[in-house]
Design a protein that fits this description.
Blueprint lengths: L2 E9 L2 E4 L9 E2 L10 H10 L5 E5 H4 L6 H8 L4 E4 L5 H7 L5 E5 L6 H10 L5 E8 L2 E2 L8 H11 L4 E5 L11 H6 L7 E4 L4 H9 L4 E4 L1 H4 L6
Parallel strand pairs: 1-4, 1-11, 4-5, 5-6, 6-7, 7-9, 9-10, 10-11
Antiparallel strand pairs: 1-2, 2-3, 7-8
Helix pairs in contact: 1-3
Family: Belongs to the HisA/HisF family.
GO molecular function: 1-(5-phosphoribosyl)-5-[(5-phosphoribosylamino)methylideneamino]imidazole-4-carboxamide isomerase activity
Protein name: HisA/HisF family protein
Length: 227
């Protein structure tokens, strides 16, 4: 059975939504799970509707423009949070651990592969999730001098239980998941959590392909996909 992991983006204390990672255009989230954009209320409703955990992105922390960590921490008290708060290195990973049960190490913000190695050496794999961020078909990793194939080989060696494959270009577009990406990461199929533009049709196809975990934002909040 496929696990649907709800996505919640936080900015200035509220839940927001947008397309293709263009964060300056994001607007307050409208969701079938709440009458407001209050992230705690939305998360509580998601829990009551069957969510087992939630993906939370603190956009202010990622862009170094503030923090919503107190909100993520509140949500984590009743619904386990997988948190992306712009981890750059071992120090920022260690700091983030108090706010969620799993911390995302995303290629968008990671300083170096060496810092990833330090995190994996010091902390159990159960506390971290690496996010392979993709934009326009290429690895989105401003600080890493690696191709997508090279980073994939690194992940195979690390043998992590969960890896997010996030196509930022597809987020909020309803265009469907990039099928070429799945083929490129098929060696990691059992660890993958896919995200970015997933439709109801995608969900069924991915399930038959053996993908058992997906991140759903827009299609969940507008009622197209259910938990």
């Amino acid at each position: 059975m496929m696990e649907v992991i709800p996505v919640l983006d936080l900015k200035s204390g509220i839940a927001v939504s947008g397309q293709s990672g263009k964060r300056d255009t994001y607007t307050p989230l409208k969701t079938v799970y709440s009458t407001s954009s209050d992230p705690v209320m939305i998360s509580n409703s998601l829990r009551h509707n069957g969510a087992r955990r939630i993906y939370v992105a603190d956009l202010d922390m990622i862009e170094k423009k503030g923090s919503n960590l107190d909100v993520a921490q509140k949500i984590n008290l009743f619904l386990p949070v997988i948190l992306d708060c712009g981890v750059r290195n071992l120090e920022t990973f260690k700091f983030a651990l108090k706010f969620a049960y799993k911390i995302i190490v995303a290629t968008e913000t990671l300083e170096s592969v060496e810092e990833l190695d330090k995190i994996c050496e010091k902390f159990p794999a159960s506390r971290l999730v690496v996010s392979v961020d993709v934009k326009n078909g290429k690895l989105y990793a401003p600080n890493l001098d690696l191709t997508m194939e090279e980073f994939k080989d690194k992940l195979i060696k690390l043998n992590l239980p969960e890896i997010i494959l996030l196509d930022i270009s597809q987020v909020g577009t309803y265009k469907g998941f990039n099928k070429d990406l799945i083929e490129k990461f098929i060696d990691l199929k059992t660890s993958l959590i896919l995200g970015g533009g997933i439709t109801p049709e995608d969900k069924e196809k991915l399930n038959t392909q053996g993908i058992k975990k997906v991140l759903i934002g827009s299609a969940l909040h507008n009622g197209q996909i259910h938990l």
